[in-house]
Every structure is written in structure tokens, then in C-alpha cells.
Fold this protein.
Amino acid sequence: MKTLDDLIAEGVSGRRVLVRADLNVPLDGSRITDDGRVRASLPTITALTGAGARVVVAAHLGRPKGEPDPAFSLAPVAARLGELLGADVALAGDVVGESAKATVAALTDGSVALLENIRFDARETSKDEAERSALADDLAALVGADGAFVSDGFGVVHRKQASVYDVATKLPHYAGGLVLAEVEVLRRLTEDTARPYVVVLGGAKVSDKLGVIANLLAKVDRLLIGGGMAYTFLRAQGHEVGKSLLQEDQLEQVAGFLAEAEKRGVELVLPVDVLAATGFAEDADYETVPVDAIPADRMGLDIGPRTCELFVSKLADAKTVFWNGPMGVFEFPRFARGTNAVASALVESDAFSVVGGGDSAAAVRLLGLPEDGFSHISTGGGASLEFLEGKELPGVAVLES
């Protein structure tokens, strides 16, 4: 695939370049609580502005219902992007309408404009190819006949959407630095991986990770399971889990994973103790109990201290580690110990360590851990998982065409 370096070598001064970025940041009202994705977009944008391009950024925020919604406006993102760039970033009042056309027309060499939330246009996520294609035509028209498209939003490349996939069929297309780096890292996790290869999975629902577990059982040496999804595994082993998160409809599937791991000689490691709380609350009382003694009226909100020690020991000799999903409700300080233990072990490890985006990346920042302590922190949790499932990512495949 052609890259950002190829585009800059061809010459971009005075040209309009459409950049699909992933700026889907968490908000508290209009305040950005984690600007990691905005910061991750800077290298590609600054490389283009430094070369004299007129940069038009397309991005989404949240899940609006295909029409303008002030709650999902990119205004806070435009302000933060401008602060980080040290230059004003003009925000269009629409996606491809009159405001977008005027905003893009006003760009000068080395300046940046941000289109309003791309998902305010229902065509972006339409299943109808003709509708998506029409929006892609409108986006291409904004940058003109000598324009180009740079895909730099890895968090959305697993989606066949107008600003991710279809627009790449309309314009000369290039992989941004972020997408290129992500693909290279994930390929390292699937091709000629240094062993022992350990994967740590957590998060709320086992159903979100069925595909990746099935695929990884044929590739990894050790699989550590924590977070809410662990209770479905524990129940499949015959343990009572009280009021802990449980997906009863996945028990048969999980039992199959346990059997498959044993058959393949994969070490599947589950919690041996948990913090059993009286309720889902930051100040909930809790007690540390073995997994075979979870009270009926309590719910597990974190792995226990013995499990922390166990998981850390299972990471000690790893040469490659992929981690996706917290070990507990890390947003509550008293239930963040497990996540902190795993993350800290990776920081101290010499392994090639990849944090699989989403809540895991947010936890690293919330817990104040050094981001450079990990080999790579992905910006796309869903895209990372689908890649590791062995699925084709449409937004990457189209760049290779």
C-alpha cells in the first residue's frame, strides 16, 4: 500500500488532503476526559501541514442517529486539536453541505479544517453501497480533482463506511502513519511471534471476544482471563458466581474453549480469588474470597491479590504479550488493583507488549502508568480484535488495492 511518505514525496503543497482520523474521545459534557486519540492523530496531520497541504479532517464522535445532534458535536475536539497544533482549526457546521464547502474553500497552505461529525450524515454507516458511494463522492468533491485521501483512523478500519472505505475508491489513497504502525504491530502478533506468547483478556462480556479467543487458541502459549468475562468461565467450571456478571447463553461456548485449550496444551489461567462487593458502586463494601466461595448476594468487581500474583507470574517469562480488557472495574479506585497489577507487570517486562486499545488504553492513562512502558498502545480496540480474529479489515484492504 502507498503511505503518507509516498504522498508527501509526490508533493502536497497547495493540495487539499482528506484525512480520516479517529477522534472518538470520551466526553464529560463538553470536556474531553482522555485526549489520547487526538494526540495520536497529530503526527500525520502535522506532517501534511508541514509539507504545505490544506488538510480536511473527517471523524466521528459517539453514535448519533444519522442526523445532527449537539451532544455529539466535534466542537470540543476541534478546540483541543487546535490547542495541540498551536493553530486554529476551523470546524464546519455540517458534513458536506454549504458550511463544509465554505470552510474548505477558505483553507490556506498548511492549515486544518474539521468537518462536523461524519455520522450526522446517515449515508456514512448505510448498508446501501449506493448511498455510501454518494457521500464518498461528496467528500471527494470537497478536496477536488487534485486531492488525496489519507486513512489514519485505525479505530474504524474494520468498518465498511463511506469515509473509511468508499472514499478510498474515489481518490488516490494512502495509509497514514498511525494505520501503518498499527498494521505492522498486529502482523507481528500473528506472524513469527516470539514465544512464550501470552494473551490477557478482560472486560465485561465474553461474547465480545468469542472470535478472538477461538482464533488465539491455535496461536498462543498462555491465555489469562479476567474482568467480568471471567465469571462465565468460572461458572462453566462449576463455580457459583453470586450476582457477578454472567452470560448464561455463552456457557456451552466457554466450556468448549476450556476443552479446546486443554486439547491444544494452551495454559488457560482463570482467577483464583476475587473482590466480592455488595453492589456495583465506588464505595461498595467488599471481601476477598476464593472463586469457589463467592457469596450469593455479592458480585465480583476485581480479581483478588492471589490472582494478581498468579497473573504477574504467568507474564514473567513472556516474550510477546497482547492485553485487551481491564481485570476489574478500574474506574473505581478500590477495584483497580488487578488492572494495575497486569499493566505494571507489562511496563516492567522486556516482552514485546501491545495494549489493545479501548478500556485498556484508557486504564493505562487513568492509572498514571508511563505510556512508553509498553511497546505499543493501539488506538482501535475493535479493529485490533477483529485483526486477531483473522478477519479482513475493509479499511485496510481498500488501501492495498
Notes: The mean pLDDT is 95. The radius of gyration is 22 Å.
